[in-house]
Amino acid sequence: MRSLCTMSTFKSVLILGKRSHCQMTFTCLRYLHKSASASSLENPVKPVSDLFTNPVDRLQPLLQIPIIPNTDRAFRPSRKEIEEASLLFEPKNLVGECFKFLGAYPNPHIMPRWDVPEVAFIGKSNVGKSSLLAAMFAQVPDLKVRVSSKPGHTKLMNVFNVSNLFHLIDMPGYGFNMPDHFETSVEAYLKTRRSKMTFILFDGRVGMTQNDQKYFQRYSDLQIPMCMVLTKIDLAKPSALLRSIVSCLRFRDETKANSCFPQPFLVSSMNGEGLAFLQSFIAYITGNLKIESLT
């Protein structure tokens, strides 16, 4: 069992002080959320100096202990591997390439059995599941992911095809305004389809809520492959984001959720930070990317 720092230890090792924010231009715009360009001058989307990195790396200098313990066989792709994976989400006009919305399904029993790996995204209402997928497909103009500011707008399981290599599934959210058929749709899917990975999303500003803990424990008991993703990191202060990470990892260990990947992923659907890194993990677990450090 990995030992994580307690919250009191966390506070004591946090390096306090002002961080300098230099104004940089985007290295690429492929992940920039369409609503970012419409943001007000009062709250502009901050640019990211390098989109092909792991956001954990910029947070590590704020802690005197490893955020991802060295004892874990961490996912650490090279920059070249991250860039290679990101290209899977961009149209290249190749034979067999297909980015397509395949349909919305109320339960898995009427969902076709496709011969490609499936990756599911789940979390509380308004945590940013649809926005995350919309950002991933920002370079595919013909593929639209419906995004709403109203919690619980996703009522069905929306399936998106990525070049016939794998499918991404946007699940209805739990909590506020969740659909009545949630258990017969989402939970039935998790029990019967056995996707390559179920990404469970948490708000990076607050970490796990009590409701998040309830559903995390519930899905952990199913022994399905899970991975934690912290969203909206562009809105979280570094100290708050670190607390969220530590609390999520600590809860994972306390509940002995051994089917959950020990490394969390951090993403922003607005400025694109962390998306290419997450895409490289998706490419890896679906068998579409070789990671030299893991061979």
Automatic annotation (TrEMBL):
Gene (name only): LOC106075628
Organism: Biomphalaria glabrata
Source superkingdom: Eukaryota
Highest classification ranks of the organism: Eukaryota, Metazoa, Spiralia, Lophotrochozoa, Mollusca
Residues of the signal peptide: none
Acetylation recorded as keyword: no
EngB-type G domain residues: 115-288
MF annotations from Gene Ontology: GTP binding; metal ion binding
PROSITE patterns reported in the protein's UniProt record: G_ENGB
Keyword annotations of the record: GTP-binding, Magnesium, Metal-binding, Nucleotide-binding
SUPFAM superfamilies with a match to the protein in the record: P-loop containing nucleoside triphosphate hydrolases
Cellular-component GO terms for this entry: mitochondrion
Protein name: GTP-binding protein 8-like isoform X2
